[in-house]
Design goal:
This protein has helices spanning 6-18, 21-28, 32-46, 62-90, 100-107, 111-117, 169-178, 182-188, 201-207, 224-232, 246-251, 281-307, and strands spanning 51-54, 57-60, 93-98, 122-127, 141-145, 154-167, 191-194, 219-221, 237-241, 255-256, 263-273, 312-314. With 324 residues, the protein is α/β, with parallel strands linked by helices. It folds into 2 domains: 6-90, Orthogonal Bundle (Arc Repressor Mutant, subunit A), CATH 1.10.10; 93-324, D-Maltodextrin-Binding Protein, domain 2 (3-Layer(aba) Sandwich), CATH 3.40.190.290. Helix 1 (6-18) crosses helix 3, helix 1 packs across helix 4 (62-90) and helix 2 (21-28) packs across helix 3. It is elongated and about 100 Å long.
């Protein structure tokens, strides 16, 4: 691309599109002689004539028409992108990408409060397990589930999570009828495996020295929201998030399997973006807002865990498995 004079190409495209040197010079804010000079230089560089003079202006040659079709498409795309960037800069937009279960079960019920505080902003939330490619996508920030290690990006933990074995009250009574031993209950239980969770059953069972459980997993799901609904329907026991199952725990639709096992607390949800995005007012204010919201939620989750007679411990696993 070093041998391509973009200034000359831009002036050629304007002359061809407008049908004359004078009109192109007016649009570009330069003199007609400057435009003519660039066109001659481009013709000399390519070794072909691009225009022929007519009474009312200029007309493209066959070679000129070929070049114009490509140049017009390229510069048209650039003009569209420029206009989109200007519109976005001049409007009040906040675009974020969020892990699906967190978006559905936590953010969706709260984001309206942020919108009420900032009614002039348009907010777009894209719930997907795919992380943003910030260099090529027009996204302000991600709310990611993970361990916080994304090289080259700013990452701030905004939400700790607590996980523990949970099931419906009816399913818990079924297991208690089989055995009073929580470890034996898990050996007899249908275990629902959230395959993209940070802590999964195989790690958790090994950590507690429980062998013989059904690790063939009759149910494997890739969304915690699905696992929670299945557990509410007596499908089995989940090892899942109090952040996502808070409403079910508060209503009694889900209960801890036992108070014999402590809950595991870990840094789970992160605000992630290029560091330069933190200079944007919308991103900065959203960061402050979501941190305030998640702090209150974490305190509520800890209190709820304590109300069940459970304790918790902070832990970070060495290997992360996916997005939730």
């Amino acid at each position: 691309m070093r041998d391509l004079n973009l200034n000359a190409m831009a002036q050629f495209e304007a002359v061809a599109r407008l049908g004359g040197v004078s009109k192109a010079a007016e649009e570009l804010g330069v003199s007609t002689s400057a435009v003519s000079q660039q066109i001659r230089a481009l013709e000399q560089h390519l070794g072909v004539k691009l225009f022929v003079r007519e009474k009312r202006g200029v007309a493209l040659t066959i070679d000129g028409e070929r070049l114009y079709q490509t140049a017009n498409q390229a510069f048209g795309s650039l003009r569209e992108v420029r206009s989109a960037i200007v519109r976005q800069r001049e409007s009040f937009n906040l675009t974020m990408r969020v892990s699906p279960s967190f978006g559905e079960r936590w953010l969706s019920s709260r984001i309206v409060n942020f919108s009420i505080q900032h009614p002039e902003w348009d907010i777009r939330v894209d719930a997907t397990p795919n992380f943003t490619e910030f260099e090529t996508e027009a996204v302000d920030l991600d709310l990611r589930y993970g361990e916080g290690a994304w090289p080259g990006l700013y990452a701030e933990c905004v939400q700790h999570d607590l996980i523990l074995p949970m099931c419906s009250p009816a399913y818990r009574e079924t297991l208690r009828a089989l055995s009073a031993d929580p470890a034996e209950q898990l050996r007899q239980a249908r275990l629902i495996d959230s395959v993209k969770a940070y802590f999964r059953w195989d790690y958790w069972l090994a950590r507690h020295g429980i062998s013989g459980a059904r690790q063939t997993y009759p149910f494997r799901v890739d969304r915690s929201s699905m696992a929670i609904r299945m557990a509410c329907g007596n499908a089995g026991v989940i090892l899942d998030s109090t952040t996502l199952a808070m409403d079910e725990l508060k209503s009694g639709a889900l209960v801890p399997l036992t108070d014999a096992f402590e809950a595991i607390e870990f840094p789970a949800y992160w605000l992630v973006c290029p560091a330069r995005h933190m200079n944007r007012r919308a991103v900065r204010l959203f960061s402050e807002w979501v941190t305030e919201q998640t702090k209150a939620h974490t305190e509520e989750a800890r209190a709820l865990i304590n109300s069940f007679g459970l304790t918790s411990r902070f832990e970070r696993k060495a290997q992360f498995t996916g997005d939730q």
